[in-house]
Design a protein that fits this description.
By secondary structure, the chain is mainly beta. About 10% of the residues lie in helices and about 55% in strands. It is built from two helices and seven strands, in the order αβαββββββ. Strand 6 and strand 7 form a beta hairpin.
């Protein structure tokens, strides 16, 4: 083994053996269902300890998003997205109250995105694949530096 590989193997973040196996779950949400709530409830019902969104395609009629200027010292800028939009991206973890970000495209291809606060209602469908890292546990705890609930990863 070369010197670089030796160094990487000493660092626990770069072990060569698998740190986690992955289980996948697929579901389809129907018109009118609220995406964030449904995904959190699904993960809880399945007792998933380290769930995250692998893929999501579909459409929504509305969503509440927090924009990127949030900090401990400035108020959150929240927008209400109205009208039919395609989900072009939905990513994040589903631990505790979750941490999801979405990008939504309107009929002209204009994209808006941000932190999903809720109120993200399915228009025609939302086809979602959830992954779960079987040997990990995710929680969210207040981080003194950021002032927000941040992800905490623990090995089982």
């Amino acid at each position: 083994m070369n010197k670089m590989a030796d160094e990487l193997n000493k660092n626990k973040r770069f072990r060569s053996e698998p740190r986690s196996t992955l289980s996948c779950y697929a579901l389809r949400l129907k018109p009118g269902q609220e995406i964030r709530e449904c995904l959190l409830n699904y993960a809880k019902a399945k007792n998933l300890e380290a769930p995250f969104v692998l893929s999501c395609v579909g459409s929504v009629t509305q969503a509440t998003l927090r924009l990127a200027n949030a900090s401990r010292d400035t108020p959150n800028e929240i927008i209400e997205v109205e009208g039919r939009h395609e989900i072009v991206s939905l990513v994040g973890t589903l631990a505790d109250e979750g941490h999801l970000h979405a990008s939504l495209s309107d009929k002209d291809g204009h994209v808006v995105g941000g932190h999903v606060m809720g109120n993200m209602k399915v228009f025609t469908t939302a086809e979602v694949v959830i992954g779960n890292c079987d040997m990990l546990s995710f929680t969210r705890e207040i981080d003194d530096e950021t002032g927000f609930d941040e992800l905490v990863v623990k090995e089982k």
